[in-house]
Model the fold of this input.
Amino acid sequence: MRKPYFPSNENAPLPLRVTVERRVRFEEVDPLAIVWHGRYASYFEDARNAIGEKYGIGYIDFHGNGVVAPVRIMHIDYHLPLGLNEIVTIEGVLHWTEAARINMEFIIRNSKGIVSTTGFTVQVFLDGNNELLLMRPPFYREFCEKWRTGQIG
Done:
């Protein structure tokens, strides 16, 4: 059993989850017909976009509020390769944090449902001048309050 990427807090709301499915395309594989390691970041992005769309916290929502949320840290653990034309699922898990950041975990499963790849990203908030925000932006703070009180989930 691997150590969790983000420690759990007994007072925190349950993580928010979304799963997307996709087929491995020819352009994503190397000469061995397995997914090239650099492509996994875009798979993570598929799940991150799905969470953003589902909960109203996507890149467009941030942009509309004068904030950007770049990835500050990305970590990937490769367990099993994925192959050409394989149908895979990518689960995105948004973890609660009191900090002004977004903690997202990713679990990629192969066509047999076996975990192929895991990882995480940490995103921070920047204002229109690319200055680091030390507090959550107001619209994200409202989202977190709804999440914390069980109105989202």
